[in-house]
Specification:
Blueprint: E1 7-11, H1 16-27, E2 31-35, H2 39-49, E3 54-56, H3 67-77, E4 83-86, H4 104-131, E5 135-141, H5 154-174, E6 180-187, H6 193-201, E7 206-208, H7 211-242
Parallel strand pairs: 1-2, 1-4, 2-3, 4-5, 5-6, 6-7
Helix pairs in contact: 3-4, 4-5
Bound molecules: NADP nicotinamide-adenine-dinucleotide phosphate (NAP).
């Protein structure tokens, strides 16, 4: 199995994991649309990789009221877009034992970037993905800290845990169509690209790498089992009520 998508929008591609993924995709022959706030990084990436393979679409995802316009502009310019990768994220430390050090505006911004905006981006792009004749994908970067919290960044883990829960249900909601939208989740530690790429190409939907893999393997099979059981039970109950 090989990576089957033709054009990928990567939101959060100006550095780190998103930039590494964009590089990997271009090397694979996949067209990419790269996004993020730092225009100079987007432009450098195009210079290094060629404007025939890469487009840039600068955007700040905290501009929640502009997300629909961002999506409709990207879709109008790229009707062949078949994969959206929501990778943007920030991590900020907070110590609630010293409340005077806790800046709630920064906390709210972290929650918006890591959770609220990704959910709104999903809503904005799903209709386009559902309309495609072929398999499409909506992918998110969460973290092993979505499953096991880290002491210094309580809000980061909580925001990624929220996104992780959202992804689990979104995947189930997409299963029966319309369209054929795969929902992917990448849970990376820092050293991740080659292993993640192998798992993406193997068709995996929950892609955990390195130390994240041990954590996911320890917790997620049981969570998935309980989730499937509860979903079946509740679906049965709802059917009975609707009779
Ligand atoms: N590195 C790790 O060890 C690790 C582990 C687990 C999970 N993660 C997750 O992996 C993802 C990428 O992280 P990274 O380590 O590669 O960090 P990074 O180099 O700081 O990349 C973060 C990306 O998010 C973008 N971003 C941040 N705020 C944004 C905003 N308001 N609007 C649009 N884009 C925004 C940044 O672009 P601009 O600054 O140009 O806007 C940048 O492209 C994040 O979701 C992170 O939580 C990372």
């Amino acid at each position: 199995m090989t990576f089957s998508y033709e054009k990928v929008l990567i939101i959060g591609a100006t550095s780190g994991i998103g930039k590494a993924l964009a590089t990997k995709l271009v090397q694979n022959g996949t067209k990419v649309i790269i996004s993020g706030r730092r225009k100079e990084n987007l432009e450098t990436f195009i210079q290094d990789n060629g404007s025939d393979k890469v487009q840039a679409k600068p955007f700040d995802i905290t501009q929640l009221d502009q997300i629909n316009k961002f999506a409709s502009d990207v879709i109008a310019e790229n009707p062949d877009l078949d994969c959206i990768f929501v990778n943007a994220g920030i991590q900020r430390p907070f110590d609630f034992s010293k409340t005077d050090t806790v800046d709630l505006d920064i906390l709210d911004q972290e929650l918006v970037i890591n959770y609220t905006a990704p959910v709104r981006i999903a809503k904005a792009f799903i209709p386009h993905l559902q309309r495609q004749e072929k398999q499409t994908a909506l992918a998110f970067t969460t973290s092993q800290l979505a499953i096991i919290p880290m002491l210094r960044c309580p809000n980061y883990g909580a925001s990624k845990a929220a996104l992780h829960h959202f992804i689990i249900t979104l995947r189930t909601q997409m299963q029966n169509g319309p369209g054929n939208v795969k929902v992917l989740e990448i849970l990376p530690p820092a050293e991740f690209m080659d292993d993640a790429w192998a798992q993406i190409n193997a068709g995996d939907e929950q892609i955990a790498v390195g130390s994240a893999k041990d954590i996911v393997d320890a917790v997620e099979p049981k969570r998935n089992e309980l989730y499937q059981h509860m979903t079946q039970m509740l679906t049965g109950l709802i059917k009975q009520f609707l009779k």
